[in-house]
Design brief:
- It contains 13 helices and ten strands.
- It is of the alpha/beta class.
- Helix 1 runs parallel beside helix 11 and helix 2 packs antiparallel against helix 6.
- 44% of the residues are buried.
- The N terminus and C terminus are likely disordered.
Length: 308
């Protein structure tokens, strides 16, 4: 007969809900690294948009290599990975995701030890779609089809848009995949009014290069800002509209299904396209875990206590 007192306590299944938020999403990297440093290893990852991409890197055990790469990006590198198009969105996304295919693992997500679910939006019906099968990058790409910026993706015979349109911080998806404790990362709390920072604009416009390269730069920047610094440009309008929408949806969804722990990276000066500032975002993510370490361990259990 087994003494109940001798049985090891039940360890909760820890889930991560990694939210949408464009360049702020690099904070997800630091948060995951910070969690591992305090002995917390999530077994379930639900990701929306940039959260789907970072979550995919984590479950395929390539997060550290991915972190090294994003921290090396310059403004010119970021814009160089964008393939400008006017068909369905300003950016096709093919150059960016082809780069990932060449440099990172891309297994079928149903074969992975950790569970991954990405959130997309069915363009025709407006319904929320949870992707749990297929290659990691295809699942992430479908979740990253931000209207007006990235072109939609056809998957399973349906056109998919960004998951942030319906579920910006996918707590519900993490729970459905078996998570007992959900740590949510909300990047939308400070998004309103942030799209393309003035520093990014000036850096992009001031990049050195040939006359042809500079011409391309100015043409690309024309998509993002208006000639009149006072009036909002096309990208300003699209980005601000999406940011407002995601902020409101996030508040509603998280009020109805609150996570056990909510982490909000303090990146108020980060704009939507500041992908070259990964180092700052990653550091904030790691610091955030340190600040909330006691709360996190209260829910998931102390690794130190478990070893005693």
């Amino acid at each position: 007969m087994t003494d109940i007192g001798d049985q090891a306590p039940h360890k909760p299944v820890v889930g991560l809900a990694l939210g949408s938020g464009s360049a702020r999403g690099w904070a997800h990297i630091g948060i995951i690294q910070g969690l591992e440093e305090i002995g917390v290893q999530p077994q379930v990852v639900a990701g929306t948009s940039i959260g789907a991409l970072v979550g995919g890197a984590y479950v395929t055990d390539t997060l550290n290599e991915f972190a090294d790469w994003v921290q090396s990006l310059t403004v010119k590198d970021v814009f160089g990975l964008l393939d400008i198009s006017l068909s369905g969105g300003m950016v096709k996304g093919e150059k960016l995701f082809n780069f990932f295919r060449e440099h990172h693992e891309n297994p079928d997500i149903e074969t992975l030890e950790k569970k991954l679910v990405t959130v997309a939006t069915d363009m025709k019906s407006g319904r929320e779609v949870w992707i749990t099968k297929g290659t990691m990058l295809d699942a992430a790409r479908a979740s990253c089809a931000l209207p007006g910026l990235f072109s939609p993706v056809k998957m399973q015979g349906r056109w998919m848009l960004d998951g942030g349109l319906v579920n910006p911080v996918p707590v519900s998806a993490a729970r459905a995949m078996g998570a007992d404790v959900v740590i949510a990362v909300n990047l939308n709390a400070q998004l309103v009014g942030a799209h393309l920072s003035r520093d990014t604009r000036s850096q992009a416009q001031g990049e050195e290069g040939s006359d042809e390269e500079r011409s391309i730069w100015h043409k690309m920047m024309g998509y993002f800002i208006s000639e009149d610094g006072d009036d909002p440009g096309f990208f300003d309008v699209v980005a601000s509209s999406i940011n407002i929408m995601q902020d409101r949806i996030t508040r509603s969804r998280m009020a109805g299904d609150p996570p056990e722990v909510t982490l909000v990276p303090m990146l108020e000066d980060f704009a939507l396209m500041d992908f070259h500032r990964a180092k700052e975002a990653i550091e904030e993510g790691r610091s955030l875990v340190k600040r909330y370490e006691s709360d996190i361990l209260a829910w998931v259990g102390s690794p130190v206590a478990d070893r005693v």
